[in-house]
Design a protein that fits this description.
By secondary structure, the chain is of the alpha/beta class. The chain has a 4-stranded parallel sheet, with helices on one face. Helix 1 packs across helix 9. The longest helix is centred in the N-terminal third of the chain and has 18 residues. It is globular, with a radius of gyration of 23 Å. The two termini are 45 Å apart.
Length: 303
C-alpha cells in the first residue's frame, strides 16, 4: 500500500496514517492478515517520530482495524466483515442432495422442475435496499448504485430497516455488515459493498500541480475530511485547496475560480456552470460489477 505524509498540513501525521490504513483495508489494498510495516520501519522510511507511528497503530488496534501479534508485528484483522457466499461446489452438493431426496420419494424430474420454478418465481428480489445510518453518505451511495444498475434502489437507516425486507437485496458497507446482519433473519443474504481504492484513483492526478487551485465540494462532511487528509498527504498545498460544504447556503462561492472541483456523485451536477467536475465515486469497480451480476442473475429466466 502506498502512503503519503504532509508535514505542513493542519491534519496530524497520526491522523493521516490512520485514515490511509483504514481506507486501504476498506478498499482491499490491505488484505486481511496482511502484516503492516513495523513502527521502526515506517518511522525510518518516512522520517516520522516512532511515537507518532505507534500512536496511530494503537488507535487502529482500539478501533479493531488491526491487531498486535506478540513478537511478530501489526496485522490487518482477519475478521473484516465480508459477504458469506457458498462456493459453486457447495451449491452443486446441495442441488445433488435435493435430487437424491426427490428420487427416494419417487417424484418425477418434471415435478421437481415445476416445484423449483414455483419457488424461484414466488417472490424474486426486485430492488436493492441500502442500509446505512449516515444520511448524507446513504444518499451518495444510493445515487451511485442507481447509476450502475437498472434495479430500483431504496435506502434506510438501521432503525428503519424492516425485519423481513421482502423483495429486497440488502446492501451495506463492510463496517456496517455485522450490525445489519443482527437486524435481519438468520441466514439472510447481505451484499457487502467495497469502497474504491484512493491511491489508485489519485494516481492520475499526481504529482500534485504546484499553485493550481483545486476545489473540494460535498454535502457529506466525511468526504471533505477525507479529501483534506488524503490530498494534503499526497502533496497538495493547503492554500491551494478550496473546501465547500454543499449543505450550506452560498456553498458554490469561489468554485468558478478553481481549475477543477473534486466532488461526490450527487454534488457534481450542482456545481456552477463552467466548473470542471472531477466526481470521485465511493464504490469500487468490483462492487459495481457484483451489483450488475446480481441483477443479471435475477432477471435471467429459469430454463
Amino acid at each position: 500500500m502506498q502512503l503519503w505524509f504532509a508535514r505542513a498540513s493542519e491534519v496530524s501525521i497520526r491522523e493521516q496514517l490512520v485514515t490511509q490504513v483504514i481506507l486501504g483495508i476498506l478498499s482491499d489494498d490491505l488484505a486481511p492478515g496482511q502484516r503492516l510495516p513495523s513502527t521502526r520501519e515506517l518511522a525510518r522510511r518516512f522520517r516520522l517520530h516512532p511515537n507518532t507511528v505507534s500512536a496511530g497503530y494503537r488507535q487502529l488496534e482500539q478501533e479493531r482495524w488491526v491487531e498486535f501479534r506478540h513478537s511478530s508485528g501489526v496485522y490487518v484483522r482477519d475478521q473484516k466483515p465480508e459477504v458469506s457466499r457458498l462456493s459453486a461446489l457447495a451449491l452443486d452438493q446441495l442441488i445433488a442432495q435435493l435430487f437424491r431426496g426427490a428420487r427416494k420419494l419417487g417424484a418425477p424430474l418434471s415435478t421437481v422442475r415445476s416445484r423449483l420454478r414455483q419457488w424461484l418465481e414466488l417472490q424474486p428480489p426486485d430492488h436493492f435496499l441500502l442500509i446505512e445510518p449516515d444520511e448524507e453518505l446513504r444518499r451518495i451511495l444510493a445515487a451511485e448504485i442507481q447509476q450502475a444498475v437498472t434495479f430500483p434502489v431504496q435506502s434506510c437507516g438501521p432503525q428503519e430497516c424492516p425485519r423481513m425486507p421482502d423483495g429486497a437485496i440488502p446492501v451495506v458497507l463492510p463496517n456496517r455488515a455485522a450490525a445489519v446482519r443482527q437486524l435481519l433473519p438468520e441466514g439472510a443474504d447481505v451484499l457487502t459493498l467495497q469502497v474504491r481504492s484512493v491511491p489508485t484513483s489519485l494516481a492520475v492526478w499526481l504529482p500534485a500541480p504546484s499553485g493550481t487551485l483545486i476545489g473540494i465540494a460535498s454535502g457529506w462532511p466525511n468526504f471533505l475530511k477525507l479529501a483534506r487528509t488524503i490530498l494534503q498527504a499526497a502533496g497538495f498545498h493547503p492554500d491551494t485547496l478550496v473546501f465547500r460544504d454543499a449543505r450550506k447556503s452560498n456553498w458554490q462561492r469561489g468554485l468558478r475560480q478553481t481549475a477543477a472541483v473534486v466532488c461526490d456523485t450527487i454534488t457534481a451536477p450542482l456545481l456552477p456552470v463552467g466548473c470542471r467536475a472531477i466526481p470521485f465515486p465511493l464504490l469500487s469497480e468490483t462492487s459495481i460489477t457484483e451489483l450488475r451480476h446480481y441483477v443479471e442473475f435475477i432477471q435471467t429466466p429459469l430454463i
